[in-house]
Each structure stands twice: as C-alpha cells, then as structure tokens.
C-alpha cells in the first residue's frame, strides 16, 4: 500500500508531463478521453470522399510486459532511482517471486502513464516523414489513431503502408523493446472493413458506417447465455438483476455508433434465450401461461420480464426486459486532439464540455438539477436567472488544473460570465 501511495504521488507530477508530450490522437488511459473519442477520430479521418482507402491495423505484442527498462530509465522524466526500483521489483505468484526484466510494474497505477510515454512520438515520426508539407500530407494521407496498444494508420496505397509505414513503426517499437503482433497486424481496404475497439468500421458504396463488431455481439451473447444457464433456480427478478448491468453497459458503449439494427437483433436473441429459460423453468406450463407470467407489464415495481432489452418493438414478445429501457442512439462529441486538461488555456473548453456531458447523462443531469436548485436558479456571478434561453455552463471554484473535481467544487454560470471570470487576467 505504501508503494501504491508513492506511485500515486509520482503520477500526480508525471501525468501533466505525459499529457503535454502525448500525440494529439492518442486516446488510451488519458484524462477526459475514451474509446468513443478514438472512434470519432476514425470517422473524421475516413468518412470523406477523398479520405484514405487503406488502413494498417496494428497491435503491439506484449506492450505492458515488453518495454525495455533501459529505454524507460533514459527517457521517463522522473526520479531514476525510484523508477528503477519499481521496474525491477518483480512480482509474486503462488508465493514464488519472479523477476521483471522488462515491462512496466504489474498492477501499478503508474503503469498506463509509463506505457503512454513510451509510445509518445509515433505520430510525430509519421508526420515528419510522410507529412512534412501540406502537399505531402494530401498525397500520402498518413494519419494515426492510437488507443493504448491498439492503433490504426491510414494511407493512400497498400504499398505505402507495407513498404514504408510498417517498417517505420517496427523500427520505432524495436527501439523500445516492443514489436508488432504478426497475427493481429494486417492491411485492409476500407470497403472490406476492419474491427477497432469493439466496432466495425467499413464503407458501403462510399458511405462510412461504424457498427458494433460481430465479435462484440458474440461476447455479449456468451455472457448472457452463461448467466441464464446457471439461473434456473433464480426468480425472474434476480435473473433480471444479473442481466441488466451486462446489457446496459454493452448498449451504452455502442450507443454512439450505427447500432439500431444490431440492437434489434440482440433484442431478438435475448428474448429467445429468456423464452427457453421460462420453458425449462416451467416445462408443464403452456406458452400462453409463460407469456402472461413473464412477458407482460404488471407494474414498475415488480421484477418481471416486460419485453425486449434494446429494441423498441411493441409486440408482447419484444418489449423491454424489466427496467432496461430502449437505448437511444446519441452521437459522441469528440474531444479536440490538442486539448490538455492541465493547461489553463483549455479550462473553459473542459468546463463547457462537462456541462454538455451532464445534460446527456442521467446521473449528470441529476447533479445539474441539484446545482441549479442549490443556487436557486441564479448565476453564481451575476445573480441573474439561469434559463434554457440564457444557457448555462459549469464552473469550478478551484481550477481544474489544481485537481479539484468534486461536486462541491462545481457551480452554474451563464456562458458569458464563465468566460469573463476565466480570462487569464483574472
């Protein structure tokens, strides 16, 4: 626990450095960034008519386990003695101590920052070689989208990616003790599509569509079947309590892309699984009896099946499953690539972004209503009324760069008042 606390202290100092040096389109294990931002950047890069048609799908083999310690000690800007002790500490499994000759500390809270700093510079290396001028950039169409050890690199031709881009990436990784996974690294045409972070990205007759990948759907259905298979002794309510977090989490992850058709198919599959569960639970009962018992609404407080999980059908067999509501499709507002949560110049941007997130999130919306009520509906600066017409944004009593992000630190302001109090001169 003491080592973990020490890592936390060093991370407080190291993370702002890592954010400042990071590639603009690196999204893994970074504050205010998510897989939805990485997918959004893929859309921005590939959706246009003149966008690149070829994609190098890359996967770094053993990223966290293979980083060269000498490289980290030479390039990570922190106390070298402390870093060396963490890197060389080893790990214990079944009461046996194993040495660590490479990689970042297993389970260490500072490991993601160390891994990100190790991969920093890949985007810059690609830009320096293939996009030194605007004309060269338009010709090569090379761009990087990185999420931890998964990445894609676009290019104008297959030969460019195979003969020039891939060797550069391999050389960059080899210097750090890493390499590409030969089984997961491939070059794909956009019309054939590829999977990235659980989504399938593909152009259909020139139109880019991003959908939940087949693999992601298969993993979800395997989890649902496993839960239902071992729940014959459970009541419908307890079964729903186990299923809903799995289904809601999966649906929320995919709600930012073209998911409506996939949600409908998943809806049907889950209904069939639940229907078979009801048949096994009541083998002597008729279909009409089971339908009446499990698949009709009898009130919001009863733990019963009331329909499909994700779809919006009105038939009795495909209404919502207990309290899991139909998941709406909401487009994600991608973060700007150069945005830095530790830079005071970006303070207004992140606070306005937080306000938008609160509106689009049930938990955040409740917090927004609480703030509005606590301030009696008035702006914390000018004391004038906050309405939908006037607009609002969230502000912090203590600046975000100082680490204060608790609810007690938030206030509601008019957008104009917010910009005025956040001027550098203030």
Entry keywords:
single chain; 426 residues; alpha+beta; 5-stranded antiparallel β-sheet; 3-stranded antiparallel β-sheet; 45% helix
Write the layout of secondary structure elements.
Elements: H1 2-21, H2 35-46, E1 54-61, H3 63-66, H4 69-75, H5 80-87, E2 91-93, E3 96-98, H6 111-119, H7 122-130, H8 134-140, E4 143-147, E5 150-155, H9 158-174, E6 179-180, E7 186-189, E8 194-196, E9 199-204, E10 207-212, H10 214-229, H11 236-254, H12 260-281, H13 287-294, H14 347-359, H15 362-374, E11 393-396, E12 410-413, H16 415-421
Antiparallel strand pairs: 1-5, 1-6, 1-7, 2-3, 4-5, 8-9, 9-10, 11-12
Helix pairs in contact: 1-6, 10-11, 10-12, 14-15
Walkthrough of the structure:
The protein is α+β, with helices and mostly antiparallel strands and 426 residues long. It has helices spanning 2-21, 35-46, 63-66, 69-75, 80-87, 111-119, 122-130, 134-140, 158-174, 214-229, 236-254, 260-281, 287-294, 347-359, 362-374, 415-421; strands at residues 54-61, 91-93, 96-98, 143-147, 150-155, 179-180, 186-189, 194-196, 199-204, 207-212, 393-396, 410-413. Strands 1, 4, 5, 6 and 7 form a five-stranded antiparallel beta sheet that branches. Strands 8-9-10 form a three-stranded antiparallel beta sheet. A two-stranded antiparallel sheet has the order 2-3. Helix 1 (2-21) packs parallel to helix 6 (111-119), helix 10 (214-229) runs antiparallel to helix 11 and helix 14 crosses helix 15 (362-374). The chain starts with a helix and ends in a 5-residue tail after the last helix. Residues 298-304 and 306-325 have low confidence and may be disordered.
């Amino acid at each position: 626990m003491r080592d973990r606390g020490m890592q936390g202290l060093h991370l407080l100092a190291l993370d702002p450095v890592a954010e400042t040096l990071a590639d603009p389109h690196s999204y893994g294990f970074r504050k205010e960034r998510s897989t939805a931002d990485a997918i959004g950047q893929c859309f921005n890069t590939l959706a246009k008519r003149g966008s690149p048609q070829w994609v190098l799908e890359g996967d770094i083999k053993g990223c966290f386990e293979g980083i060269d310690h000498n490289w980290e000690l030479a390039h990570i800007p922190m106390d070298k003695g402390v870093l060396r002790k963490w890197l060389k500490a080893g790990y214990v499994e079944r009461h046996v101590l194993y040495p660590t000759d490479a990689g970042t500390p297993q389970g260490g809270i500072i490991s993601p920052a160390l891994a990100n700093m190790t991969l920093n510079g890949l985007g810059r290396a690609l830009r320096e070689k293939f996009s030194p001028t605007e004309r060269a950039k338009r010709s090569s169409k090379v761009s990087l989208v990185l999420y931890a050890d998964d990445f894609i690199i676009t290019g104008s031709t297959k030969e460019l990616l195979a003969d020039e881009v891939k060797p550069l990436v391999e050389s960059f990784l080899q210097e750090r003790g890493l390499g590409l996974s030969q089984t997961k690294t491939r070059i794909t045409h956009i019309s054939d599509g590829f999977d990235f972070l659980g989504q399938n990205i593909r152009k259909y007759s020139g139109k880019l569509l991003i959908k939940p990948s087949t693999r992601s759907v298969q993993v979800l259905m395997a989890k649902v079947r496993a839960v239902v298979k071992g729940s014959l002794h459970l009541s419908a309510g307890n079964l729903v309590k186990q299923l809903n977090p799995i289904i809601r989490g999966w649906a929320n992850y995919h709600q930012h892309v073209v998911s409506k058709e996939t949600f409908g198919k998943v809806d049907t599959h889950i209904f069939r699984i639940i229907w078979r569960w009801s048949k096994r639970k009541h083998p002597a009962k008729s279909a009409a009896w089971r339908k009446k018992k499990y698949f009709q609404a009898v009130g919001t407080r009863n733990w019963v099946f009331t329909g499909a999980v994700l779809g919006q059908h009105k038939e009795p067999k495909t209404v919502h499953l207990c309290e899991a509501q139909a998941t709406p499709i909401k487009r994600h507002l991608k973060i700007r690539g150069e945005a830095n949560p530790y830079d005071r110049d970006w303070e207004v941007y992140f606070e306005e972004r937080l306000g938008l997130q609160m509106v689009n999130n049930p938990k955040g919306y409740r917090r927004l209503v609480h703030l509005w009520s606590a301030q009696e509906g008035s702006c914390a600066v000018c004391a004038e009324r906050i309405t939908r017409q006037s607009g609002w944004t969230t502000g912090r009593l203590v600046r975000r760069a100082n680490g204060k992000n608790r609810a007690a630190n938030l206030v509601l302001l008019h957008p104009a008042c917010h910009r005025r109090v956040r001027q550098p001169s203030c």
